[in-house]
Amino acid sequence: MFKNYIKIAWRNLIKNKGYSIINIGGLAIGMACFLIIALFVNNELSYDTYHEKGDNIYRVVHHNGSEDIDDQWIWGNAPIGPALKADFSEVIEKVQFSGRSDVLLEYNNNSFQESNCFYVDDMVFDVFSWPLISGNPKTALEAPYSIVLTESTAKKYFDNEDPMGKTVDGIGGRANDGMYTVTGVMKDVPSNSHFSFDVLLSMSSFYQTRPSIFESWGYVDFYTYFLVNDNFNLEVFQEKMPSFLKTRLPEESKEYYYNVSFEPLKDAYLNSKAVRQPGITGSLSNIYIFAIIGLFILIIASINFMNLATARSMERAKEVGVRKAIGADKKGLIYQFMGESLIMVFLSAIIGLLIVSICLPWMGNITGKEFVIKNIFNTNTLLLYFGTALVTGLLAGSYPAFVLSNFKPVSVLKGLVSSSPQGVNLRKGLVIFQFSLSIVLIASTVIVYFQLSFMLDKNLGFDSEQQLVIDFNYDGAIRENLETIKNEFLTLPEVSSASASRTVPGAHFPAAGTNIESKKGEMLNYDPFLYEIDVDFIPHYKLEMAAGRAYSRDFPADTISSMIINEAAVKEFGYANPENILGKKFEQWGKSGTIIGVVKDFNYLSLHEKVGPLTLRYEPGSSRFLSLSIKSENMAAAIDKIENKWAELAPHRPFLYSFLDESFNEQYIADFRFKELFTLFSFLAILIACLGLFGLATYSAMLRTKEIGIRKVLGAEISSIVTLLSKDFIKLVLISILIATPFAWYAMNKWLNVYAYKIDISWWIFALAGIIALSVAILTVSYHAIRSARANPIKSLRTE
Predict the structure, then answer these.
(1) Does residue 398 have a pLDDT over 80?
(2) Residue 771 neighbours by CB distance under 10 Å
């Protein structure tokens, strides 16, 4: 019997190739999308889960600002780590990383600037599961000038040599320049880690250079993690912090607000609200969005299956009637049609697997994730996938199976089969659901596109066009000759201006404890961000002055006793008018004097964040970057000239450059990946929804075949018949527009809240989404309407 069912099912698939391709193909695309999204979501949720002691690892969150304005930072002071370990028995071990360092490493005349380095405590391998291939994990980072390389980094320097015990020359890091001994080689950090690195340097190397900052509660340069015992209770531990800080904080640090809280390691990637992270963070809202889209795509594909199967029911009505007339029972027919549904679903599932296997590398490029074939072909994934296919097949095949098996043989053989009102309403409801979702996705895609375009096109308040930035990583020889080097570059006709600074917009910058004179003459403490710049920075980047003046060579005192701030700092420091803060006193990192100017706010951060208080301090000796404004139609030739000039001026340094607009926009990589994924899956969801409408249009045209024939015999025009068949679907799409608009508006308003600077959602976006959906629906339905209207009426009436 089952063999016979399979044979009949296969014959029906072969006989109706077009129907089979549409039905199986649509479901295959839906299941492939579901699997890809499931892999993506699973990857996002897997961050930092590979650490064996991960459930017992926490990190410190530093709270600055005030009790009303709580700025949460992961980047903080050094003393907090040793103090927590000393004062609390539940803290087994602490591991601190210095802020990310850039170090020029050289071996055998091969030099590379490693931009992904951390100085770290020697117990790091006891807490985190980063296995060493070579070396002793307990002592590898114990001695000063010890270095541990990842496997890929070691390969870059030493190729097939054994790197253990060899020395590399380190230049330009936070610790003293010197020879570092390779004491360990570790496996590359897994891609699902909330921060990664290529090089680890012993913290004792850093300590030898600047021991004082390890005792300073006000100096920010460390990420602190700690391992706790199994009895650790986070809520109880948090309650102990006020008394702990009251005891531990020195008196000078109690003058400003400071508190700490703690995050489990498992929350670092998706659930952290803090800034100054050591690496990338994900978006929990985006995961929810993609998970919902994946589920909806699967539901839409299942709905299509039901609609297309129902549309085919009229063609098989006589088959059912004949089978029931010669003794087939309802149960057997249900088994047959459910079996056919399951066969089609499992064919779709297999094709879906092939689609995913082919598209996986491409999806990896779009998402930036590391997807490999073995992630698909493992037991858990396959069980989930085919389990989903089974459920989908049972649900999708149930309605057609019960509809077909309920046909009465007498009515069928007399040609009196018609749709029930319940069936008609169900199908209409499914179309409304599909197109409501489609309109939400269309409107959302348009909003995502315009928001990201707004971010790229917004005037950031500084000149970012054709700004070539050279990174010389604090090189002492270059800093001592900055003016000479700048003047040499200005001799090139392609270079119109030059400036040196510690940071540039979009790059890393510090914060600085700063005392500012208040209106009452008191010196109040703040923690604004800090740009250390030269005299040419403000005119070079075309920053506008809101009050006062920029630094000038005509005022020698600017080098030692002047400061410029931005408008956000003016407000933070308690002044409404920028003019009123001019001449007020400041004290910052060993320098004191008066404020001489206020620049208009410029977006030195991404548009996710509002412009914060910023001080621009005259300190060319702290520079790391050289910015050159390029004016040339032949950019490649200009870069060659600049590189040749750099080789003359700094032969010991590699020519590392970037264009400011490109590096600044790297902050939006996650946003652009989200846009690409969202657009792709939205398009596929809409495409699959159209297949469902196509199926329903087929079904409707088949039901009204004789009616159309009679109308044509009586003289009806093709246009009137097309209108007759299309108007019901147009009504359904119009209802979908009314349902989808408020949902789309609410959802996208929530999504836009992650941006400090965002577009306004206009009514025309939803009108456009509705027009697109309506156009797609009309085009989809018109195919069958026109085909039915042009058919020979004699054929449709012949059986009467």
Answers:
(1) no
(2) 13
What whole-number distance in Å separates Cα of residue 291 and Cα of residue 306?
23
Q: Alpha-carbon distance 200 to 185, whole Å? A: 10
Other C-beta atoms lying within 10 Å of the C-beta of residue 676 = 14
Q: Residue 26's closest CA among 445, 250, 352?
A: 352
Give the span between the Cα atoms of 406 and 412, in whole angstroms: 11
Burial of 491 (0-12, 13-18, 19+ CB in 10 A): exposed
CA dist., res. 208 & res. 403, Å (int):
81
Strand partners, 200: 118, 148
What is the 3 state secondary structure string of 218-260? CCCCEEEEEEECCCCCHHHHHHCHHHHHHHHCCHHHHHCCCEE
The Cβ of residue 776 has, within 10 Å, a number of other Cβ atoms equal to 19
**What ranges do the domains of the chain cover?**
2-43+283-455+669-797, 54-267, 473-655
Question: Which residue in 726, 275, 229, 254 sits closest to 509, CA to CA?
Answer: 275
Q: Are residues 176 and 41 in contact, defined by beta-carbon separation less than 8 angstroms?
A: no
Q: Nearest 5 degrees, angle CA 686-CA 692-CA 694? A: 105
Q: Which of 197, 194, 218, 207 is nearest to 44 (CA)?
A: 194
Distances (CA, A) of 462 to 166, 402, 506, 544, 604: 46, 67, 12, 8, 9
Instruction: Find out whether 95 and 163 touch, Cβ atoms under 8 Å.
Output: no
Per-residue pLDDT band for 480 (boundaries 50, 70, 90) equals very high
pLDDT at position 780: 76
Would you say residue 490 has pLDDT above 80?
Answer: yes
| DSSP tag of 275 | B
What mean pLDDT is reported for the chain? 87
**How many Å apart are CA 413 and CA 297, to the nearest integer?**
38
Q: Where are the beta strands (DSSP E) in 217-365?
A: 222-228, 259-264
607: left (phi over 0), alpha (psi -120 to 50) or beta: alpha
Take residue 265 and report the two structure tokens written for it: 């390691």
* CA 24, chain centre distance (Å): 32
Residues 6+ apart with CB under 8 A from 28: 347, 348, 349, 351, 352, 355
Helix extents (H) in 523-666: 537-540, 558-561, 567-572, 635-649, 660-665
Q: What is the DSSP string of 504-542?
A: -TTS---B--EEEE-TTS-EEEE--EEEEE-TTHHHHTT
For residue 278, give both structure tokens: 């050591």
Quote the CA–CA distance of 785 and 774 in Å, as a whole number.
16
Q: Does position 565 have pLDDT exceeding 80, yes or no?
A: yes
Contact 466, 629 (CB under 8 A): yes
3-class secondary-structure state, position 150: strand
Residues 426, 436: Cα–Cα separation, whole Å: 15
d(CA 544, CA 554): 19
Residue 333 has pLDDT above 80, yes or no: no
Give the residue among 464, 487, 485, 466 at the shortest CA–CA distance from 631: 466
441 Cβ partners below 8 Å, 6+ apart? Answer: 293, 682, 685, 686
pLDDT band at 466 (very low <50, low <70, confident <90, very high): very high
pLDDT band at 164 (very low <50, low <70, confident <90, very high): very high
Give dist(CA 548, CA 550) in Å, integer: 7
Contacts for 329 with CB less than 8 Å, ≥ 6 apart: none
Cα(165)–Cα(528) distance, integer angstroms: 44
| 327-343 as b/e: b if 16+ CB within 10 A | ebeeeebbbbbbbbbbb
* Collapsed DSSP state (helix, strand, coil) of residue 93: strand
Tally of residues, the chain: 800
